[in-house]
Amino acid sequence: MSSKKIHVSELRPGMYVSKLDRDWLDTPFVMQGLLIESREDIEILSEYCEHLWIDVNPSQQQLNSSPVKAAVSIAPKVAPPYKTEIKEEHRRVSKTFKHARELTSSLLDEVRLGAAIDTNNAKDTVNGCVESVLRHPDAMMWMSKIREAREYTSDHCLNVCVISVAFGRHLGYSEEKLQQLGLCGLLHDVGKMRVPVEIIDKPAALTPKEYNLIKAHTVHGRNMLLEAKNIYAGAIDVAYSHHERVDGQGYPRKLKASDISRFSKIIAIVDAYDAMTADRVYSPAKTSTEALKIIYSERGKQFDDQLALEFIQTIGLYPAGSLVELYSGQIAFVVETNQLRRHLPKVILMLDKDKKPYKQEKLLDLSFIESGELAHDKLIKQVWVDGSFGLSIRDYQKRGLVLKRGFA
Ligand SMILES: [Fe+2]
Q1: CA 238/CA 222 separation, integer angstroms
Q2: From ligand 1's centre to the CA of 303, what distance in Å?
Q3: What is the Cα–Cα distance from 187 to 164, expressed in whole angstroms?
Q4: pLDDT tens-digit map of 267-285
Q5: In angstroms, what is the span from residue 396 Cα to ligand 1's centroid?
């Protein structure tokens, strides 16, 4: 197939784009390869790249299996609207999240000391998260980016709860189902409380024996939850099966894809995403985009194909709490995602183009680029790992997030 490099202004409906001057995952088009169907496709692409390559004689198969159609088919039918303004939800959520952190940490500490799992405590934690995510998922998603180095397992469990609830919201789940899914997320790694901390936090490669001890957390988790009172049965299954893979190479049972529950497949993706985006003793944190690229490449192998694509749609290009650089050179935190135009979120500007801090942070709605009220150099150029440029969301939150009136 011969391809031709053209300027984006030369693009017309009916052309098949095979390559961009940037990575596909940095655009709203999930798949590689794209049949241009409308002026809107061209407008979106023109915001992302200057040059692209078109196939001169696209095959019938390319024209039929348009990735745009695939991307549309995996998008939610109707994105649930935000029920509250982000500033309102931030006001509520810091207390809720702090409380959820304390409850999760004490629940796991007690389990480590041999106590039974406090299911009421776990349900309270999950229900608070579900209520917030249903009002506006970005406040909880922002909070999930704040990590305490010493509390990895506890933070990870709560984060998997929050992110899986946001994923379930995207999938259109009912409140009851979200509560069940969140509980599965919160308790998926409870079996790690039976694994020595030195092994979990070992800053070097594990021996085969140590790796077996880690893998046993799935069996411990199942056994511990079987003994818990009034526990949702799905949580037992997820604790047991969240390391199974759809290619049958997972553990502990090497289940086939058809034998792995949907909730276990969901938690497997969220678990991997949160682990990859956290700083660990043995590997530095990846950006959200890098983690999504790995999930994309592992679909059909480690992860369920369709759910992996849905998850990428849920998280989007720039989830709340991401540290981003604009083409202007300014550095900002994403504070609210744009459900229709995922590449145009609302941000808080932290550093100017010379990377000098603003005396007072500025709030900016990048969707004004579309109306021409903001220049194109305010488009996001790239995502940075939290902590880059000396900016950490944890420090910023500690100083007190202030969202001003008029920013909605
Ligand atoms: Fe696990």
Answers
A1: 8
A2: 14
A3: 12
A4: 999 999 999 999 887 788 9
A5: 30
Distance CA 140, CA 158 (A): 10
Please give the distance, rounded to the nearest whole angstrom, from the Cα atom of residue 282 to the centre of ligand 1: 16
> What separation in Å is there between the alpha carbon of 369 and the centre of ligand 1?
42
Surrounding residues of ion ligand 1, Cβ less than 5 A: 189
Task: Compute the distance between CA of residue 371 and CA of residue 352 in angstroms, rounded to an integer.
Answer: 23
Contact 264, 272 (CB under 8 A): no
Q: Are 331 and 321 in contact (CB under 8 A)?
A: no
pLDDT, greater one: 341 or 116: 116
CA of 243 to the centre of ligand 1 (A): 6
| Residue 18 clears pLDDT 90, i.e. is over it | no
Phi/psi of residue 227, nearest 5 degrees: -85, -15
Q: Note if the pTM is more than 0.90.
A: no
Compute the distance between CA of residue 170 and CA of residue 367 in angstroms, rounded to an integer. 22
- Ligand 1: distance of its center to the CA of 316 in Å? 24
* Whether residue 24 has pLDDT greater than 60: yes
The string of DSSP codes covering 337-399 is: --SSSTT--EEEEEE-TTSPEEEEEEEEEGGGGTTTSS-GGGSEEEEE-TTGGG--HHHHHHH
* Cα distance between residue 338 and residue 336, in whole Å: 7
Q: How far is the CA of 218 from the centre of ligand 1 (A)?
A: 7
Burial-class residue 72 by CB neighbours within 10 Å (0-12, 13-18, 19+): exposed
Q: Tell whether the torsion through CA atoms of 200, 189, 388 and 94 is positive or negative.
A: negative
pLDDT of 405 reads 46
Distance from residue 187's CA to the centre of ligand 1 (Å): 10
Give tens-digit pLDDT for 143-193.
998 887 667 888 999 999 999 999 999 999 999 999 999 999 999 999 999
Q: Ligand 1 mean position to 25 CA, how many Å?
A: 27
